Amino acid sequence: MQKGLVFNIQRYSIHDGGGIRTIVFLKGCPLACPWCSNPESRKAVEPVQWIKNGKKEIIGEWKTSAEVIDEVLKDEIFYRTSGGGVTLSGGEVLMQHLFAKEVLSELHYLGINTAIETTGCFEKERLESLLPFTDEVLFDIKILDMTQAKKVIGINLKNMKENFEMALQFPGVKVTPRIPLIPDYTATEENIEMIINYFKNFDIKEVHLLPFHQYGSSKYDYLGWEYLLKDMETLSDTEIDQIKKRFESHGFYANIEGLE
Amino acid sequence: MAIATTDKTQGSVNTMSKVNPRIQIMKDNLFKDKRQISIERALLYTESHKQTVGEPVIIRRAKAVAYILENVTISIREGELLAGNRTVRPRSGILSPEMDPYWIIEEMDTIDSRPQDQFEFTEEDKKIYLEELYPYWENQSMKDFIVGQLTDEINDALKDEVFKLNQTDKGQGHIIMDFPAILEKGVQYYIDLLQDLAEEQPENDFFLAGLIVFKAMKAHFLRYAGLAEKMAETEPVEQRVTELKKIKQMCEKLSTEKPDTFYEALQLLWMTSIVGQYESNASSLSLGRMDQYLYPFYKKSQDEGVPEEFLYEVLGDFYIKTNDVVLLRSESSAKCFAGFPTGYTVVLGGIDSFGRDSVNSLSYMMLELYHEILLPQPNLSVRMNELIPRKFLLKTCETIRLGTGIPQLFNDEVIIPGFLSKGVSLDDARDFATVGCVEVSIPGKTYGLHDIALFNLLRIVELSMYELRGTKGMTYERLLENIQQKIQYYVGLVAEGSDIVDLGHRHYAPTPFLSVLIEDCIKNGKDVTEGGARYNFSGVQGIGEANLSDSLYVVKKMVFENKEMTFDELVDAMESNYSGKYASLQEHVIQDFDKYGNDNDEVDDIAAEIFRFYAKELEKYQNVRQGQFIPGAYTVSAHIPLGEAVGATPDGRKAGEQLADGGLSPMVGRDRLGPTAVLKSVSKLDNYLTVNGSLLNLKFQPNTLKGHQGLNKFADFLMAFTKLKIQHVQFNVQSKETLLDAQKHPEKYSGLLVRVAGYSAFFVDLNKKIQDDIIARVEHEL
User: Fold this and answer.
1) What is d(CA B66, CA B275) in angstroms, rounded to the nearest whole number?
2) Which CATH fold would you assign to the domain A3-256?
3) Testing the interface with A: which of B390, B713, B726, B779 to mutate, by most A Cβ within 10 A?
């Protein structure tokens, strides 16, 4: 049985996928998005220590897939009445693909809706191994300029696109692209343009737009890390609406936070 | 917020886009003046009582009520379509010195400035009270009887605040009269029936007493007919003349005949309720399943082409009138039941006697009307079950989203089997409704004394721990054993005490009018207080489940498993109130041990086991009406005063701090995993046991219920609640910011309704402690 490093299990989430859901946050991510709101999940699949309100805490706990399944099944009754289920998020779920596979396959067997949130930053075999047990992929699309993508977040765009395109074609899997709207980084004129042009190649109906927020900022303090975006302003409603309209003028329904 | 109109398949309902002017005037007038105490009922009652010396108690009582109905000043207020006001001045509190003449003496000069539910008491009335009423009732009230009967052991337990006995100073209430029967038969039917029975069985005073009151009800109706006629003569506005003439004609008809229209049915319903109020000055004479028994009248009026706006307006009038009756409580009682829970509880929907869903177009209309009225009463409830139409569920969610705490939800899937387990027939169990705040009862058939006592389980844990300090070889099992012994002992006493109160009502305050409208009383020829009703219960609330789970979990883990400190040291820490060398312990026990409300079996099972023990113990007792004692689990607002009775506890709660609110809710701020985990924790108590009723508060951020998706996910959440077999849940949907601002600027928030516990009250009417408590209850974000 696989063990996975989990840093949070959040019950009663309605913002990430259909129905009432539990989100399992897996530790470890190879990317370095400066706006990351879960910085404690970054880097290796190893526990990390932070200091919160003067108290040391270890973030990340090794759990077997059976333990995680037991935990998420505590809310089974809510998944059944709402059509909800379990979302594996991160970190980057593909960092712990073997563990993820065990969790997803068991939940899938039980008829519980499964979703994963990924950036698709590994060779496509990893994602491919999860898709037979996955109902929905929330696919993060961030920066589409090859050089910028490598430089700012450290992602290999070729991998990402291969994964994205494979997921789109995979039978029975719903793919929802999610675009974080970060001023100066992703929410630029050119980047939005590139994303729209890329999406036009596929049969995509809906995208989620995730406007920048500062909710994660105190976590950088706990970790003693520098947070580059601490003075970054959030987007105004008008700016968000303009971006939404741009997507919609090209036939993509743009759902803010996935809440609409 | 858009109010969706009901679609045609459910009967068309015209949702009014703007506030109806008549409803607005009536609402405004209701709250224009300061609340006052009226001694009129007390004076009339006493005057009659003086004339009937030597007659049987029930006849004296009936004659006193009749005398009130024949002589009390009556009024028809501006815009009213329904006749019947308990007092001329809106929202007056009435005294019933025949029950308890004492408390008001002590509180006479503070009642207009006390922290909760103030009333004006005029100097003139105070004088009359002191000179005429008090001397007459002193030493011959119901209270004197009760106090005289209480044993030393019960008095010690009361002094130790292990339990509280309720309704020792006012009518029992917590009952629903058989409204469908009186609506079907009319007043004269009862007069004729009782006349015959009184002649056949002259030795049975019950029939004669009933006859006296029903005849007085007829006379009371005719007095209103006379008043309406007189007012019409001088009324300048023509439309109002027509209305007054209609009132006259209707009151005349209903003084004998059964109603034929929706309007007439509401009039008879209201008058029945008012007569009941004059008789018992009761804590909550509830209304039951209004959408069910009024539906035939509603349908008939619709079919006859009566404009929907008119039906809406009359029902609006009825809604407003339920806020006119407020209960005058002593200061300590007002603390426990803050903000005037009068108990005009109404349930909508639910399973019918065929086991099918019973939601109808009137159910929708009654919820929609509430969107316009937005007052604390009637206290609407919706019955949840697996068959509830999604459309009605969404309408319910929309109403909850208004943020006023109305409606509260009751779960057929657990309440019906609960009643079956107590010998209630399937048909009757399916017909249950709510009384008081959250108690459940079978309408028209039950005298349930649903609010007879509060039993503080946490206080027992505390007593046990102190008693066992210094025990050699102390174990966790030893503690549990001691707690169980104490529960056994005090349950015996609370049952005995409740029976004394029960007998007090029998000997001093029988209720012949009410009893005629409770099934089997006529058949048995007995008043409800004599045990005439079909179902007879006494409901004792077991309180403190959350704190008790949290506390015993700390004892078990910290003392007996981790051996961090000895049992005696923990008791010392409690005694020190977490001060001195134990100061840092408080945070340790709060932070480092899991708490009830987080879906941890090990913690949740503690309360489940102790509550089960308590329930099984209580159920062994039979009351003086050969009915069973049944357990409940709610505090209403009593978690604050009951907390004052308990010293520091092992869960980190300091001495005197409140207990967990509501009854089954987790301790404030200790649930960290959101509302699904709370529901799971609550579901582990065996909720089939709380046949008397239980209470769960949940607080949601307004954001989480936003939009179509938010509403639907909330509806799904409620379906899970239904499947989890939890009896009750109610919601506060106000942001913390709004409530804090209302505390600072009460003048801007006079209409802000919030959920207290089983009922809603105006936020600004509540004292600061309860306001703070409501603010602190965790906001769950979806």
Assistant:
1) 9
2) TIM Barrel (3.20.20)
3) B713
Q: Where are the domains of chain A?
A: 3-256
Instruction: Give B177's Cβ-side CA count (13 Å radius).
Output: 27
Radius of gyration of chain A (CA): 18
Q: Is A84 an 8 Å CB contact of chain B?
A: yes
For chain B, give every domain's residue range: 35-141, 142-168+450-692
Q: What are phi and psi of B166, to 5 degrees?
A: -105, 170
Residues of B in contact with A80 (CB under 8 A): 720, 723
Q: Cβ contacts (< 8 Å) between B704 and chain A: which residues?
A: 14
CB contact under 8 A, B709 and A20: no
Angle between helices B152-159 and B476-508 (to 10 degrees): 120
A81–B723 C-beta distance less than 8 A: yes
The CB density around residue B18, as the number of other CB atoms within 10 Å, is 7
List chain A pLDDT tens, one digit each, 260 residues: 999 999 999 898 877 778 999 999 999 999 999 999 889 999 889 999 999 888 899 999 999 999 999 999 999 999 999 999 999 998 999 999 999 999 999 999 999 999 999 999 999 999 999 999 999 999 999 999 999 999 999 999 999 999 999 999 999 999 999 999 999 999 999 999 999 999 999 999 999 999 998 877 888 989 999 999 988 898 999 999 999 999 999 999 999 887 77
Chain A hits for B717, CB-CB cut-off 8 Å, are 20, 78, 81-82
CB contact under 8 A, B723 and A12: no
Q: How many CB atoms lie within 10 A of CB A236?
A: 10
Condensed to tens digits (0 to 9), the pLDDT of residues B726-765 reads: 999 999 887 777 888 888 888 777 777 777 665 667 787 7
3-state SS string for B243-311: HHHHHHHHHHHHCCCCCCCHHHHHHHHHHHHHHHHHHHCECCEECECHHHHCHHHHHHHHHCCCCHHHH
Taking one residue from A and the other from B, the number of pairs with CB-CB distance under 8 angstroms is 60
